[in-house]
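Q: A reviewer asked whether we had any structural model of the full assembly, not just the individual parts. We don't, so I'm hoping you can provide one. Inputs are below.
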Amino acid sequence: MSDTSKTVKPQETAPPEDPTAAPVAVVDPRLLVRDEGFKGYLTEFKRKVRGGELGSLPVIIGLAVIWTVFQTQDSLFLSSTNLANISYFLAATGMLAIGLVFVLLLGEIDLSVGSVSGLSAAVFAVLATTHGVNPWLSVLLAILTGVVIGAVQGWFFARIGVPAFVVTLAGFLGWNGLMLWLLGDSGSLSIEDKGLLHLLGQRSFFMDQAVIGAYLLAGLGTLTMLAGSLIEQSRRRKAGVPFRPTSEIALRVGALAVVSFVAAYVLNQATGVSNALVIFLAALVITDFILRRTSYGRKIFAVGGSIEAARRAGINVAVVRISVFAISGGFAALGGLFFAAQTYTATLGAGGGNVLMLAIAAAVIGGTSLFGGRGNVWSALLGMLVIQSIQTGLDLLNMNTSLQYMITGAVLLAAVVIDSVSRKSQKTSGRG
Amino acid sequence: MSATPVLALRGVSKRFGAVQALTDVDLEVHAGEVVALVGDNGAGKSTLVKTIAGVHPIDEGTIEWEGAPVSINRPNDAQGLGVATVYQDLALCDNLDVVGNLYLGRELRRGGVLDEVTMEQRSRELLNTLSIRIPSVRIPIASLSGGQRQVVAIARALIGEPKVVILDEPTAALGVEQTAQVLDLVERLRERGLGVILISHNMADVKAVADTVHVLRLGKNNGSFPVKDTSHEEIIAAITGATDNAVTRRQGRRSTEAAK
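A: Here is a predicted structure for the entire assembly that you could use as a starting point for your response.
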């Protein structure tokens, strides 16, 4: 690291202590200690960026650029109605992206999520519309279809040793075929506006568009983070391990509060918070908790980091892999229902086109590495904000599909390049 | 030293395809004993260790744990018995931090949720009692040096309160001071009443800490010596198979002459 001399803060004032006397209190002189105050955050931030820990930085810059460009082209882009549209439509592909984050954390890929989402919508429509099965039971069975499909693909990958790329490519084709066969006679099936599909629809809003609803959500999120951070701080203080200073907690919670309350205000200007978005956010919170706070999540990261190390630590690598592919299939199925609810039909084209590419792009753009072991589910949200902004913006400008595809392809390529480059610089600065 | 060995291997054999990696190998480890396992490259040391650790199930023979025969087919079985292994290739997850690696596979939980605070606290305590200096327990393994990774790997073996610790070439990548620390650590393990299997190429290390030297040659037992009464040359001779050559004959003649 080139700026070591600047950021190291040796304990010049402290007398040379006997290292055995107070080993806990002595900060290792090799460790880069952050300076006090705001300047400290800035230098640490610079060091991290230089070391390739870009985190959410590219996606935030990208989002700013995209919003600026589209706003200059069409003043309606940043209108509350359009932003509400973006927030509604990002949920469907976002669900697929959540599942993909799990798979990407293993360093694998699931190419079947698009087809599985289409199949799930078809299964639901056939059950609920053609056979008149209870809509909630149909939802359950549709999601179960996705989970089983994912588990089967995972089994081929984990137990037989077929590369995940090939298994899911076969699934990409096969499940699409199954969907076409299911819908064969009718071509497309309409879906009744009730049950979960009503909640996911475009006319369903949190607390029936009550103004207080959006602020309630924003407040709940902020308070949860504040309480969680403070509880953790006090536990750490009691246990005598390093803890986040209160100033940093205030900064983080403040940032979240600003973002969430501004978002709530903007959405209230339009229609309120769509229930689809609320369900998507809830899924993010739950999956984030699973990945970071449970030993199952730790296992996923371990397998993504080093399979051999995970295996020797007694982790059943095959079970982790199969379960992760099942999760991916489940989220793909759920995402398919989100898509179906947008138009209340299960169509032959569902889950086709660029849905798969957009979901992968979202996960990678959001900061989850293609190489495994690094990332979080929030990248599904951040990445989808970028992707959906581009889509909506191009729609506003009446650009045709050809251009949309090319631009989305370029964005995906850019995201992968950033991922690869940051991985390289992480290797050289030893944070790989 | 107790009469019943904590761990005993009797007539263990292991094949990989056409290669007979281990043939009829016996090994005993008592509580509070450091057994050095030595041998040339390809002698089967690592394979033997992996059969005990459950990475490679044995083909023939029996493994006894505290006198009772057991079967070790998976790493979990070995861990469950109380065997902890530090491999030569360390097997740490680069993307996880020190705490995450120390507790990998046996995370502490509080109400179903990872108890990061207690894990971090205990990690620091453990590293301090072992006099291991790591800049921070919250940095990823990728940013540690080779020696630091080695001590983390050894510390990790002690988290589960094992009865037998296997160290595969623990000092091979270390500097002078860290080697001394690891050897101190090995003695501390013995004082705690643990059985230690130490694989090493370094005879100075072996003579410094081991109680018994067990020699493997071409996958077979080639002698077991108490360290105190055995010379450097005898061990080397057993390792290389050069038990009968000009040097040993001359030595033998001299010693018999001296005895007269």
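A: Points you may want to mention in the reply: The longest helix of chain B spans residues 176-191. The CA atoms of residues 98 and 197 of chain B lie 24 Å apart.
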